[in-house]
Amino acid sequence: MKTQGAVLHAVGAEAPYAISRPLRIETVELDPPGPNEVLLRIIAAGLCHSDLSVINGDRPRPMPMLLGHEASGIVEETGRDVGDLQRGDHVVIVFMPSCGSCLPCAEGRPALCEPGAAANGAGTLLAGERRLHCEGVTLNHHLGCSAFARHAVVSRHSVIKIDRDLPLDEAALFGCAVLTGVGAVVNTAKLQAGMTAAVSGLGGVGLAGLLGALAAGAREVIAIDLSEEKLELARELGATHVFNAKDPEVVAQVRAVTGGGVDCAFEFAGSARALLASYQMTRRGGLTVTAGLPPPDAALPVPIVNLVAEERTLKGSYIGTCVPRRDIPRFIGLYKAGRLPVNRLLSGRLTLEEINIGFDRLHDGTAVRQIIDMQ
């Protein structure tokens, strides 16, 4: 079948993207779903820094590629061996497919699935196939999703079925921003009620993490960002203190208001500088969790003696250490109960043709989570 999608042919275009137009809306040939694959009609797709990092070259990926990895949709067709989904089902796309049989999957850590990681790096679906073509050229898939399109073929292992009563524009956020942000708090850090937390980087993922810390019962949640507008939104969402990351005394201020540092610090900015500051603002015995994705050559100068003598912990978090089949329904349940108001993170709606404008806003730091409405 033919559909429309946002194709990236080369990385490194200069902003403003509304002028350089790195993403071109093109007519794409989409193969029918193969075994254990599904054809989706995409309803909503979110713009994320992980997409931007491919556009600007920070995250090397094979080109050309149809981007997009945070989305919701409706099942249009199922391939052979898909017995638990049918036409009309509502789903959230997950950007890390899990095979279910490799060692990490067997350990209950599907975010670290080895075949899934290999497929994502190669630009294929989990089975190793590419189902996208444009003018005789085969396109690569972005993280097994390629959701900046009106239709997508994805692995059955890349979608989670959801109830139909959740609006699909809101549902899209659960595939990346909520999984990554909330998951980092409740799964990676296992934040307990009464603890203190600091959240650096208030994009969609960071603000979802802030909401997760509040839902988990943190007694103090400190928000840190370069944007005063995002800091104000964090305060409205329940942050107990806000600090601008431009302030050279931000670490000292956090340690002062918490009496020695926070129990858990979360870094979502994708910045080595922000990660070091997060590490420095934890207390003795504290935990620092990073879910940010800086350029591959970024390094962290951590004093080892401090790490040892103060029994600090530094952990990475990918997809919030989530088990999507378990966690997406849980997080949706918290949202429906009013304890995880992720709809407050929606900062704009775009058409597919406006996608480059949306990435300008993301690049400038003026947007939290923009949604492309495919309807």
Polypeptide structure, described:
With 375 residues, the chain is of the alpha/beta class. It has two domains: 2-175 and 341-373, Quinone Oxidoreductase, Chain A, domain 1 (Alpha-Beta Complex), CATH 3.90.180.10; 178-317, Rossmann fold (3-Layer(aba) Sandwich). The protein is built from 13 helices and 18 strands. It has helices at residues 17-20, 49-55, 103-106, 114-122, 168-171, 177-188, 204-215, 228-237, 250-257, 272-280, 304-309, 324-336, 355-364; strands spanning 2-8, 23-30, 37-46, 65-66, 70-78, 90-93, 132-134, 137-141, 151-155, 159-162, 196-200, 220-225, 241-244, 262-267, 282-290, 313-316, 346-350, 369-373. Strands 3, 5, 6, 9, 10, 17 and 18 form a seven-stranded mixed β-sheet that branches. Strands 13-12-11-14-15-16 form a six-stranded parallel β-sheet, with helices on both faces. Strands 1-2-7-8-4 form a five-stranded mixed beta barrel. α6 crosses α7. The relative contact order is 0.16.
List keywords for this structure.
375 residues, alpha/beta, Quinone Oxidoreductase, Chain A, domain 1, Rossmann fold, 27% strand, globular
What is the rounded Rg?
Answer: 20 Å
> In what range is the share of β-strand residues?
25-35%
Mean pLDDT: 97
- Total beta strands: 18
Q: How would you describe the oligomerization state of the chains in this entry? A: single chain
What is the overall number of helices?
A: 13
Shape: globular
Q: Ends: how far apart?
A: 18 Å
Structural class: alpha/beta
Assigned CATH class of the largest domain: Alpha Beta
Low-confidence stretches: none
Which CATH architecture of the largest domain?
A: Alpha-Beta Complex
CATH topology of the largest domain: Quinone Oxidoreductase, Chain A, domain 1
Query: How many discrete domains?
Result: 2
Largest sheet: 7 strands, mixed
CATH superfamily of the largest domain: Medium-chain alcohol dehydrogenases, catalytic domain
